[in-house]
Amino acid sequence: MRDGAVDQVTLCGLKESIYTQVVMMALAAKGVAFELKRDNPFEAGPSGPHPFARVPVLLHGEFAVYETAAISRYVDRAFEGTPLVPGDAVGLARMDQVIAIADSYAYWPMVRQAYAHGVVRKQAGIDWEKELVRDGLRAAEPVLSELDGMAREGEVLNGLRISLADCQLAPMVAAFAQLPKGRKMIAQFAALSCWLEWISCSRAFRQAIGKTV
Question: Which end of the chain has less neighbouring CB within 10 Å, N or C?
Answer without folding.
Answer: N
